Amino acid sequence: MAQRLALQRLLSLPARGPLASHGRAFGTSAGRRSTFNVQDGGDFQDRVVNSPKPVVVDFHAQWCGPCKILGPRLEKLVSKLDGKVLMAKVDIDDHTDLAIEYEVSAVPTVLAMKNGDVVDKFVGIKDEDQLEAFLKKLIGA
């Protein structure tokens, strides 16, 4: 049922109503400066596409079990990089248009973006070593 509802949302217009504003309270105090929740398409354009720093974009959903594991793991590693990379969190139920635009067909999907371009991507859960390698490749370390 949840998967069918998610698929319907992915194929329809952005979610509206009481469910449209759920789940925006992600973040830890350590990663607050480098991690943010995307609010809308304009916010994504300003803070991700136009960012002078590399950005990791975490496409996730509240109902996604692996997302609940990957998100905090990735956030922790991004916060350790002291602002060398930013992390944008995009809830696909709230931002269906962005999920479609970036061809997200499963969650979690993580994009690595530099200068507005997608330079790397993975789908699914990764362990900390794999995430560290993904981030190091993004920042050129």
From TrEMBL:
Domain of life: Eukaryota
Pfam families linked to this entry: Thioredoxin
Protein's GO biological process: cell redox homeostasis
Keywords (A to Z) from UniProt: Disulfide bond, Electron transport, Redox-active center, Transport
Residue ranges of domain Thioredoxin in the record: 24-140
Family affiliation: Belongs to the thioredoxin family.
PROSITE patterns: THIOREDOXIN_1, THIOREDOXIN_2
Gene behind this protein: Txn2
Protein name: Thioredoxin, mitochondrial
Alphabetized PANTHER family for the sequence: THIOREDOXIN, MITOCHONDRIAL
GO terms, molecular function: protein-disulfide reductase activity
GO cellular component, one term: mitochondrion
